[in-house]
Amino acid sequence: MYPINDFRILKVIFQGKFENSRVVEMEFIGLKRLTMYPIDENFTCEILDATMILKDDCIYWCDCGGLTEEDLEDCGGTVICASKVRWRAADEYLGPDEVYKSK
User: Fold this and answer.
1) Domain count within the chain
2) Which end of the chain is more exposed for a tag (fewer CB within 10 A), N or C?
3) Is residue 42 part of a domain?
């Protein structure tokens, strides 16, 4: 963990059952917003759908499908806003092992 994120970079790893790659790593650069709400204990935490929106030179990623720009402020899930985003296939991360660890 680097306690001062002066680069404002957030990396997220998604494991799933994609056709071409089962693991995708997304890197959000120039992080402007990260909103996370705890999941209700009556539900699981799988992400079944997501939305990416380009608005005012920012990229928004939300863990809910079908959102519009007007829905961003009231989204009850995870919202990430950054200046840039890039992603890659990362099948080397497949499995139960920790990928990002404290130094």
Assistant:
1) 1
2) C
3) yes
Are 29 and 86 in contact by the 8 Å Cβ rule? The answer is yes
- For residue 64 the two structure tokens come to 């809910």
Determine contact, residues 88/12, Cβ cutoff 8 Å.
no
Backbone angles phi, psi at 93, to 5 degrees: -95, 0
Q: Check if the beta carbon of residue 13 is closer than 8 Å to that of residue 29.
A: no
Residue 82 burial (CB < 10 Å; 0-12/13-18/19+)? buried
In a domain, 4, yes or no: no
Global confidence as pTM: 0.80
Q: How far apart are CA 71 and CA 87, in angstroms?
A: 24
Written as one string, the DSSP assignment of 55-96 is ETTEEEEESSSS--GGGGGG-SS-EEEEEEEEEEE-GGG-SS
| pLDDT digit string, tens, across residues 67-94 | 999 888 888 888 999 999 999 988 888 8
Residue 86 domain flag: yes
pLDDT at 5: 59
